[in-house]
Design a protein that fits this description.
Length: 211
């Protein structure tokens, strides 16, 4: 009887440890809220950056004193002048149609890029990252890793070729981003570069396990 109880306890313990280990192995998505489900309401008159964007002809899709941005939006890449006429709009809709999953997705129109916000992610030379995201629309897109060295300066990037998008259905885009030839790497920041009229949802960037 005692042996049976001992065996039962041992099996339970192994089961629990197995679950714990599986959770440990699940890679963390570096992109905050990659499904664009959270929004950030910005009072245009009180938000200098958003005000400046609107002055430069960048649209967020609403009229009125409040602009609705994705909560994970950091800032646009490059000069705002170059983005004149661009639109970055949180769209709501049905999974599989206007959005890939959940209730919201992002629509980008124009030629530009933007950084995701959040802490820069610690990295070292040789780390390999896998980017996956869903898009539909017409144009092209890529996800770029900005590289920050041990002195805290942006010094290079890992820049895949843009992937053409010409689809009314959601399609999966994947990039493998390798930092092996980028010495002195300390952190990464992430930006998306859409061009054309592109819907984007479920952006994920994970660090691949060491081989
Ligand atoms: Ca979504």
């Amino acid at each position: 009887m005692r042996i049976k109880r001992w065996l039962f306890c041992a099996v339970c313990f192994m089961f629990v440890m197995g679950i714990a280990r599986a959770e440990e192995k699940e890679a963390k998505n570096i992109i905050p809220d990659g499904g664009f489900e959270e929004v950030s309401e910005r009072v245009i008159g009180a938000d200098r950056y958003v005000y400046e964007c609107i002055q430069k002809g960048i649209g967020f899709g609403q009229d009125g004193p409040i602009a609705i941005l994705p909560s994970n939006f950091g800032q646009f890449y490059g000069s705002l002048e170059a983005l004149e006429g661009a639109k970055l709009i949180v769209v709501e809709g049905t999974p599989g149609k206007e959005v890939h999953s959940g209730k919201r997705a992002l629509f980008f129109c124009g030629n530009g890029g933007f950084y995701f916000n959040g802490e820069d992610y610690k990295a070292k030379t040789g780390d390999v990252f896998k980017a996956c995201y869903y898009v539909k629309g017409q144009g092209s897109i890529r996800l770029i890793l900005g590289l920050i060295n041990t002195e805290g300066n942006y010094y290079q990037s890992v820049t895949p070729k843009p992937v053409s998008v010409n689809s009314d259905e959601w399609i999966l885009i994947e990039h493998t981003l390798d930092t092996s030839d980028k010495p002195d790497l300390s952190k990464i920041c992430v930006r998306l570069e859409p061009k054309g009229e592109i819907y984007i949802d479920d952006v994920s960037l994970v660090e691949e396990e060491d081989q």
